[in-house]
Amino acid sequence: MTEVTSEKFSLSAAAVAELEELAKRYPTRAALLLPALWKVMDQEHWVSLEAMEWVAEFLDVPAARVYGVVGFYHMYLDKPPGKHIIEVCQTTACAIMGAEGILDTLHETLGVGLEEPTADGRFMIRRVECLGACEHAPVCQVDHAFRFDMTPEKVKSEVEKLSQEKE
Ligand code: FES
Known about the structure:
By secondary structure, the protein is an alpha+beta fold. Helices cover about 45% and strands about 10% of the residues. The protein contains 7 helices and 4 strands, in the order ααααβααβββα. Helix 2 runs antiparallel to helix 3. It is elongated. The structure holds FE2/S2 (inorganic) cluster (FES). FE2/S2 (inorganic) cluster binds next to helix 5.
């Protein structure tokens, strides 16, 4: 077990205990990098610089390696997300079936680009690779729930529904 000295971030004791348990099944602590980043995502919904440094110290790996992994994998967010994340599949079947039109509608409706939270912090739009439901292209995920056979009208109505939710 590694004692982490960083005071700017810490994972919950429960998450640390789970990682320590997992460490017994991995050949090296460095191999825990992806699960450790998932624990950070579960707790914070994104991975801050402070969290990356904490993970580097916890696993005794260079911080540059952690930054590299967070930057490489699309599923780790290095900026705070909006409350609702709308992901639009951009891979071939969805692209052919109109993913760009859905993205255009989202940009127009929400007034933000990709990966930028809206000013009220409610939404963020992301492009993602194949979601594995190509027969229902174009496919989106709203807060990780699938939405099949999407159209610009359907995605607009999703946004309207979520906008009406109370904070
Ligand atoms: S190409 Fe979009 S779900 Fe497979």
